[in-house]
Design brief:
single chain; 5-stranded antiparallel β-sheet; alpha+beta
Length: 138
């Protein structure tokens, strides 16, 4: 019954799409927009903090390791009958990098995403790669 109610909701209430500008300040700007969306959805503060951290990690991953453009999709979903927010970042694929990544500075993002989400994954398709996570919110 809840799924039918979510599907019956206007599309703007179910999924929000945010293009990610390829710029250093893009993550914080998009994060503020997602924070406003979560407030409109009445997501509890602790759960919203988790969603925002997962959003930041997936967006940063797209900026640092992938080719632009990237797009963020945020939607409400169900995980085993519990309310969740899906964070999905799609990019056009892996970037070629000539610089070394300092393991003290990078490499923990996917662990954070895995820890905070009920489920997460990667989907490769002809248009690129989508990394997603479902964070329980209720």
């Amino acid at each position: 019954m809840i799924t039918a109610q979510l599907n019956a909701a206007p599309c703007a209430e179910v999924e929000h799409v945010f293009p990610l500008p390829y710029a250093p300040r893009a993550v914080s700007a998009v994060r503020r927009r997602v924070q406003a969306l979560l407030a409109r959805w009445n997501v509890p503060t602790d759960a919203a903090d988790d969603v925002l951290l997962v959003t930041s990690e997936l967006l940063t991953n797209a900026l640092v390791h992938a080719l632009p453009p990237a797009t963020l999709r945020v939607s409400r979903t169900l995980v085993d009958g519990h309310g969740a927010v899906r964070v999905d970042v799609t990019d056009t694929g892996p970037a070629r990098t000539s610089c070394e990544v300092d393991p003290d500075e990078h490499g923990r993002g996917i662990d954070i995403v895995t820890t905070l989400s009920a489920r997460c994954g990667v989907h490769t398709h002809p248009g690129g790669t989508s990394r997603w996570a479902d964070v329980l919110v209720g």
